[in-house]
């Protein structure tokens, strides 16, 4: 009965509101939650991260609708995916790469059954005409298989670059948030006393688990070296750069009460090396 | 039980949240959906388009609350309007022009009955003190007539300029969305194979229906000529200007992965001619 | 069953959506209302005003969650506060100063009981791991005392500067809204015919009540003098500066269809004098 929304539509125009009207016409009791409507235009990779990072915090069976859809009206398929945790609806362009990698099992289907489309399907707004109705029907218990035909190989983005080693972990910048915090692919990390344990995301081989000391680790990025991995923002001086474990378990660079992204002048894809 | 909100309040201040608090105090089960709170300050015409374009996608009986209210505290009336499809609440300044034109029948009333106001009515925020309570009461089934006295002639804006002809359709720019898509008054258009059928919006005379070929039509705007009307965004090259039928059935100018509004340097009111 | 949210997280990232997911996992029927997510980064004083100004318009028993939390992961306590009107959840950094001052009675508790935390508590996002769960549990009726231990003296900000006198009321700029309206600490004011009655906010001594004529009063701010206090925006010419009683009962400076803040070039804290 819960549906989240992630788009690049912004909130200035009524496009998001209209999708909600369509969903509530089908599922009047649905709880609708916005994840982000400020995904950069057509930035599938950012949206994939947003959905992946948020979905563990929603109840089992939540439907996640993501409409970043540069290919609307072309041959790209509309799809829905089911994992043990949640359901996902959107265009087949890689949006669900990370959640599929993270799931032990999943199945996918096209949204080809016109019974679950709006009566009139435009060629320019499948968010409203195809995706929103599918999400709403799933939220009230429609079986995934009813929506269309099985999809064996949904489109996938390359996984975030991460080479975990005993001495050195190599990764890349994954995401920059609105505070200017620089989220990297070095994760997921968890604290074990003063040590950190890396359980490489999307690489489900426990042999990869690596343990290292937070105090002696260094992080190299954009020609700078940051010493130590801090427990939280308040442990360095205002304006000081630090490395820490962010809220989703990935290594972050941050400046206390400032912007690490601006200080470092980095973008997604920039190289990061942790020496352990 | 559903209420939409359209304002020029933005979301930085708690004004919208406060209106929601008032509505949920009266109608605790209401589903509240934001259409837009980024209507340009006091731009009644844009808000009228937002409500008109969104309302067909909501369940019958939805209440649409619109507060663009430069005349708050002056003589302008607060009103509610009922059509076969929906209910509308806001100041009597033209906000509901398009939905009234579109409806076969409507009736309107003032919001003069103090029983449905907040206990204390300020002179500066009728959105909170008069409009939100009226919308909430309507959403739980209050009869329109209970709110006040009948209004025969609510204020109306001039209709969007549109001169439909066999050889030539003359219109104007109606709206520019946040992607820079230029929505014109040439609509509503629907596809019939490769032809388009114009059923002039707000001019309910079927004799006006005009059919023309999408391939050979040309669109003139801001000194440029665009050839053909495309089915969707993906049919031209990245960066190319195109004409297409937008998601609400009006002719749009768009640049694939770019901004047509910036390229054309047009504003609402600019002339558009389609040669059929 | 109603929970409001006030943060400095913005809506670009999914942080707010994630907190909602956590709350709806615990309280699936909760009505969630955003007050503002555009509080300037770490501006506790602005958030305190937002929550104080909005809370009277929500049903009794509403839970107000506020996460402006520069001290996350440090020694600052997480707290919840209960008044006769509402419940409040957030870090103990002064966020609830105004609502405590306004309430005849309140009690406060820490959020130290791990039973009401997420299973894994990070050091960087207590909004998700501690505050959101507490708010959700309170919204479904959990007793305040169950959350932790009593707090005798929550952190308080200095109250807004206000020296009420018979001839002269001295105050300061409290808040600037997105329209550029300048809200001052001179309040709360109510109309009594053409007179105004000041009932000094947070200073619950009826002896302080002062009555003065709106027509003859003058307001001095930033080297300017504004004559008279107007009932509403529409009573002066477009572009003209005016003083009026704003929607929350505080004296405001406004420019009709313009920005008083820009015209006056003032910031919170600037001095205001009303000569009565």
Summarize this, please?
The structure is a homotrimer of 276-residue chains. The first copy, chain A, has helices at 15-26, 44-54, 97-102, 126-139, 260-264, and strands spanning 2-7, 31-36, 62-67, 78-83, 86-91, 106-110, 162-164, 168-176, 182-187, 189-192, 195-198, 210-213, 218-221, 224-227, 229-230, 241-245, 250-255, 271-275.
Mean pLDDT of chain A: 94
What is the CA–CA distance across the termini of chain A? 45 Å
Q: Helix segment count of chain A?
A: 5
Elements of chain A, N to C (H/E): EHEHEEEHEHEEEEEEEEEEEHE
What fraction of the residues of chain A are assigned to beta strands by DSSP? 25-35%
Multimeric organization: homotrimer
| Shape designation of chain A | elongated
Low-confidence segments of chain A, ≥5 residues, pLDDT <50? Answer: none
Task: Count the E strands of chain A.
Answer: 18
Specify Rg of chain A, calculated over alpha carbons: 20 Å
Q: Profile the largest sheet of chain A.
A: 9 strands, mixed
Helix residue percentage of chain A? 10-25%
Q: Identify the most extensive interface between protein chains.
A: A-B, 29 and 33 residues
Structure description:
The structure is a homotrimer of 276-residue chains. With 276 residues, chain A is an alpha+beta fold. Helix content of chain A is 17%, strand content 33%. Chain A contains five helices and 18 strands. In chain A, the strands form three sheets. In chain A, strands 7, 8, 9, 13, 14, 15, 16, 17 and 18 form a nine-stranded mixed β-sheet that branches. In chain A, helix 1 (15-26) runs parallel beside helix 4. The longest helix of chain A has 14 residues, at 126-139. The first copy, chain A, starts with a strand and ends with a strand. The mean pLDDT of chain A is 94. Chains in contact: A-B, A-C, B-C. Chains A and B meet through helix 1 of A and strand 1, strand 2 and helix 2 of B.
């Amino acid at each position: 009965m819960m549906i989240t929304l992630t788009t690049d539509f912004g909130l200035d125009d009524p496009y998001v509101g209209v999708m909600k009207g369509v969903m509530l016409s089908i599922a009047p009791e649905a709880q609708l939650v916005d994840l982000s409507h400020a995904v950069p235009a057509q930035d599938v990779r950012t949206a994939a991260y947003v959905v992946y990072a948020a979905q563990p915090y929603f109840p089992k069976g939540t439907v996640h609708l993501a409409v970043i859809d540069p290919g609307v009206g072309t041959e790209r398929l509309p799809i829905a995916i089911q994992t043990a945790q949640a359901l996902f609806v959107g265009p087949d362009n890689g949006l669900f790469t990370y959640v599929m990698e993270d799931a032990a099992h999943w199945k996918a289907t096209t949204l080809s059954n016109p019974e679950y489309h709006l009566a009139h399907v435009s060629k320019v707004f499948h968010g409203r005409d195809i995706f929103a109705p599918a999400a709403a029907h799933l939220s009230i218990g429609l079986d995934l298989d009813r929506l269309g035909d099985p999809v064996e190989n949904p489109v996938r983005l390359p996984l975030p670059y991460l080479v975990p080693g005993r001495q050195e972990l190599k990764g890349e910048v994954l995401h920059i948030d609105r505070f200017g915090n620089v989220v990297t692919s070095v994760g997921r990390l968890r604290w074990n006393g003063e040590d950190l344990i890396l359980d490489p995301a999307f690489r489900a081989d426990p042999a990869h688990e690596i343990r290292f000391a937070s105090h002696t680790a260094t992080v190299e990025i954009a020609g700078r070296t940051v010493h130590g991995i801090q427990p939280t923002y308040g442990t360095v001086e205002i304006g000081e750069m630090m490395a820490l474990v962010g809220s989703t378990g990935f290594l972050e660079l941050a400046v206390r009460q400032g912007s690490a992204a601006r200080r470092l002048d980095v973008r997604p894809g920039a190289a990061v090396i942790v020496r352990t």
